[in-house]
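One record is kept unedited as follows:
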Amino acid sequence: MKPSLIVHGGAWDIPDESVDACKAGCQRALAAGWSILSSGGSALDAVEAAIVALEDDPVFDAGFGSHLTLDGHVECDAIVMDGATLRAGSVTTLRHIRNPIRLARQVLENCPHMMLAGEGAERFAVEQGLTLCAPEELIAEAERDALAEVQQQQARRRASPRP
């Protein structure tokens, strides 16, 4: 069977000024995954490599460049599934993991649970040899600006008289 790899950068209304960057990011992710598949690597390795490329690209809202919570934090999620076994590994509410997909894969392969969250997931990451990062390392300047705009809109709504 000939392998296939499909990459998408999320489902959202991409602004015109971001279309080229999104396409280029998806092409880089596709190349990262395809290089593994074309050299005989596993589908899981290819998927992980492609997603790491997306998580490292601030154009996408995963890993570095994630949207911020109203409190100004990044909280990342990821899930990966092995089609051969139908087992999955997922993580949520991560604040110190640059590439959540790497941890989701560790959950899939080395954990009796399907999902880990927050601090417990991050403790498991350390046990698996993954490196934690400072939360600030996950924040792109564009996301700080977006949060500031949302906070300003909320302040204006609170300040305006209601009928």
User: Anything to note?
Assistant: The chain has a mean pLDDT of 95. The radius of gyration is 18 Å. Residues 70 and 89 are 27 Å apart (CA to CA). DSSP finds five helices and three strands in the chain.
